[in-house]
Design a protein that fits this description.
CATH architecture: Alpha-Beta Barrel
CATH topology: TIM Barrel
Oligomer: single chain
Number of helices: 11
Helix content: 40-55%
Radius of gyration: 18 Å
Largest sheet: 8 strands, parallel, barrel
Number of strands: 8
Order of helices and strands: EHHEHEHEHEHEHHEHEHH
Number of domains: 1
Distance between the termini: 8 Å
CATH superfamily: Aldolase class I
Strand content: 5-15%
């Protein structure tokens, strides 16, 4: 069964736009699980423009399914100029994850200042570093996933780090699928082909398989039909956007239907 993990970053983005605690990120996580989501994902960034480190501590005790923390292990929080931290949270991503001990940590090579994740790891150039980080997290009993492009070589080298899973970066699939849909060229076999090949390589390497980025109600069912052995999809932007029209309960139900 493929699990749906809801990325709640965008809920925090709305909250932060006005200050205060509306919408309530913690309650939203509770409701997502209540409506059927099988996991909660957060991706704290150094500038804390959406999920804050303090949110991660608040959310951890209430998650009853799986808690997935995404981020760059090299990330360091940036304090506002002239201000000191009042939350007693660690400033480093690695220390945060080791204290929280989520079900899973997903390593994402975000460059500083990027709007959203836009590339997977180069597991050849970063082999030694990733080996060390994976070992450190696994020693804490945390499942590790490496965010990666649909590139067989990178997946094979990811397997050598000792990681438990890889997460396929699916932006190009979503983009090509949408173009094919507009042109009436359904099903979008060319869009999914490199991902099927990559998924097979991951399976042959003994790796678990996750997927995420721009997956939506438009393209998720087809993705799952072609790669039914995906362990987990992590979806945030599209799902939260759909919830503005459909409501979060109906939205989660529709996404779960795509994974049947």
């Amino acid at each position: 069964m493929t699990k749906l993990s809801v990325n709640i970053n965008k809920v925090a983005t709305i909250r932060n736009a006005r200050g205060g605690n509306t919408p309530n990120v913690k309650q939203f996580a509770i409701d997502c699980e209540r409506f059927g989501a099988q996991g909660i994902t957060v991706h704290p960034r150094p500038d804390e423009r959406h999920i804050r480190y303090a949110d991660v501590y608040d959310i951890k005790p209430i998650v009853t399914t799986e808690f997935n923390i995404e981020g760059n292990p090299k990330g360091e929080r940036k304090a506002e100029s002239g201000k000191q931290r009042a939350d007693n949270c660690p400033d480093g991503f690695i220390d945060l994850v080791k204290e929280i001990r989520p079900t899973q940590v997903t390593l994402v090579p975000d460059a500083e200042g990027v709007l959203t994740s836009n590339a997977g790891w180069d597991t050849v150039k970063n082999q030694e570093y990733l080996c060390d980080v994976v070992k450190e997290f696994k020693a804490c009993g945390i499942r590790v996933s490496i965010f990666i492009d649909a590139n067989p070589r990178m997946i094979e080298m990811a397997a050598k780090t000792g990681t438990d899973r890889v997460e396929l970066y699916t932006e190009s699939y979503a983009s090509e699928y949408h173009k094919a849909a507009i042109a009436g060229k359904m099903p979008a076999l060319q869009a999914i082909k490199p991902f099927v090949e990559a998924a097979k390589v991951a399976r042959n390497c003994g790796l678990g398989l996750n997927a995420g980025h721009d997956l939506s109600l438009e393209n998720l069912a087809f993705f799952h039909q072609q790669i039914p052995w995906v362990d987990e999809v992590s979806i945030g932007h599209a799902l939260i956007s759909d919830a503005l029209y459909l409501g979060i309960e109906e939205t989660i139900h529709q996404y779960l239907n795509c994974l049947k």
